[in-house]
């Protein structure tokens, strides 16, 4: 069984990496294969900087290898990002291989291997069995408020939604979708924000990529009073 690395954030790899790590250049497949092995087992996207530190490589080398792996997994097709057919041929590799069933994505601030979206129905039959629990409408609405108003306190979310959200916030925290973002300097209330796992599940790199709400709102009259009520 493949050993899984401890869960990490996008900027860090485990602090328990051994001091006597082998030189990845001397391993089968070299640095490229070592990077691929790490990408196969990390639980969250990792930045090129974190991967470079974990593998004792330079960031430039890791970024080059990431681009190479991404092109390979895409099968060197015309859809491969930044694919340079001439340079690929110079490296004695073809440009007509079939895409893999997985792909390397730069998402939520880091890199990770995912199964391709086209195979979601196929993969779902294997990984979703017995895991049919979905977020309730209340949880989705609360998550949306936090995503767009973060960092935000439970009191403000409750004011916006018009209901108590304590239990929903606990559920979202347990699911790893939101986290503690410190305390409000005025009230001392705990503030909440979305996590990198939320970005990963949404398929975006940052909250700045969330859809704009203004085109979907019927009107903004009284919006200042609306937000003032949330500061209670």
Q: Could you explain how this protein is built, in words?
A:
41% of the residues lie in helices and 11% in strands. The chain has 10 helices and 5 strands; from the N terminus they run ααααββααβααββαα. With 232 residues, it is α+β, with helices and mostly antiparallel strands. The model is unreliable at 1-8 and 77-94 (pLDDT under 50). The protein starts with 29 loop residues before the first helix and ends with a helix. The chain folds into 2 domains: 24-116, Orthogonal Bundle (Arc Repressor Mutant, subunit A), CATH 1.10.10.10; 137-230, Arc Repressor Mutant, subunit A. The protein has a 3-stranded antiparallel β-sheet with strand order 3-5-4. Strands 1-2 form a two-stranded antiparallel ribbon. 20% of the residues are buried. Helix 6 crosses helix 8. The protein has helices at residues 30-41, 48-55, 59-73, 85-90, 120-127, 137-149, 154-161, 166-174, 196-202, 223-230, and strands at residues 102-107, 110-115, 152-153, 178-183, 190-194. Strand 4 (178-183) and strand 5 form a beta hairpin.
What share of residues is helical? 40-55%
Question: Ends: how far apart?
Answer: 52 Å
CATH class of the largest domain: Mainly Alpha
Give the uncertain stretches in residue-range form. 1-8, 77-94
Number of spatially distinct domains: 2
Count of strand segments: 5
């Amino acid at each position: 069984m493949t050993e899984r690395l401890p869960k990490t954030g996008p900027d860090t790899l485990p602090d328990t990496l051994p001091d006597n790590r082998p030189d990845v250049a001397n391993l089968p497949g070299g640095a490229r294969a070592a990077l691929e092995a790490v990408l196969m087992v990390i639980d969250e996207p990792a930045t090129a900087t974190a991967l470079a530190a974990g593998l004792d490589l330079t960031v430039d080398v890791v970024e080059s290898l990431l681009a190479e792996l991404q092109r390979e997994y895409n099968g060197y097709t015309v859809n491969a990002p930044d694919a340079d057919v001439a340079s690929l041929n110079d490296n004695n590799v073809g440009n007509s291989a079939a895409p893999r069933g997985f792909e390397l994505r730069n998402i939520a601030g880091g890199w990770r291997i995912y199964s391709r979206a086209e195979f979601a129905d196929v993969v779902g039959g294997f990984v979703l069995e017995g895991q049919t629990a979905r977020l309730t409408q209340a949880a989705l609405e609360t998550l949306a408020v936090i995503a767009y108003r973060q960092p935000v306190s439970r009191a403000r979310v409750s004011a916006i939604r018009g209901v108590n959200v304590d239990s929903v916030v606990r559920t979202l925290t347990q699911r790893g979708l939101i986290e503690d973002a410190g305390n409000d300097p005025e009230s001392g209330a705990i503030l909440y924000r979305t996590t990198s796992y939320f970005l990963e599940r949404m398929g975006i790199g940052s909250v700045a990529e969330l859809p704009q709400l203004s085109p979907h709102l019927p009107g903004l009259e009284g919006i200042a009073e609306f937000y003032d009520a949330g500061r209670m």
